[in-house]
Amino acid sequence: MQTEVVQDQGLKRFFNQVYLFMAIGVAISAGVAFLLNFLWASQVMTILGQHSWLMWVVFGGELALVLGLSHAQMMSKSKMVSYFILYSVLQGLTFTIIPWVYDLGSITAAFLTAVVVFVTMAIYGRLTTKSLARSGQITMMALIGILAATLINIFMHSSTMEYILSYATLIVFIALTAWDNQKLKVMYQQATTTEGGIPVDNLAIWGALELYLDFINIFLSILRIFSRNN
To answer: Could you list the residue ranges that cross the membrane (predicted)?
Structure first.
């Protein structure tokens, strides 16, 4: 009984660390986007207008950092923290264009809705006793299909397809939020009972990145839907 209490306390501390890192990441991204728009909006617009390839460089950097963070078992905690912060900064650069496309009311409503949806599914994923592994695998396959359809739509420029993909993406990342929380719970238990596994601190940062991506995609999907409906 005492061992179970200690494990529960350790799991609680672990998830607190995960959510803290995730919140820091979201705050950094939002802060970078806000500062760029508040202080240097015209300069940023001019630079991106003249050098649109810079956004592809940012996307490439984000992908490289995600791949780097996936090797949590072999990295030091300080290096993982540095990668995570840098990723959040780069993501903030891409968020700079959001206020140019959407009005403040839609952004605020989408963000608050995303918070409610994310928290609800995070709680469900942590507390449910039903295994979500099967649904998680199906959802990942659906995500691959969505990515393929999104690439095709870059050339088709179909607003209807974009609208459908927004709903599909929202559903997929709602399901992934629940699955990722349950998956982190299982991975924590494995990390604390198996020698040579991922250090718990590293796992927390990796988990924060997973949930960060879930939340951001929920937010962007809702934002596109709200904007279309308005």
So the answer is: 18-41, 53-72, 84-102, 108-127, 139-157, 163-179
pTM score of the predicted model: 0.87
d(CA 43, CA 203): 39
- Cβ atoms of 226 and 108 within 8 Å: the answer is no
Query: What distances in angstroms separate CA 160 from CA 144, 163, 166, 222, one per listed residue?
Result: 20, 5, 10, 15
138 residue type, one letter: I
Q: What are the distances in angstroms from CA 180 to CA 15, 86, 194, 213?
A: 12, 22, 20, 11
CA 44 to centroid of chain Cα atoms: 24
Please report, for the chain, the start and end positions of each structural domain, with discontinuous segments joined by +: 2-229
Q: Within a 13 Å sphere around the CA of 162, how many CA atoms are in the beta-carbon half?
A: 13
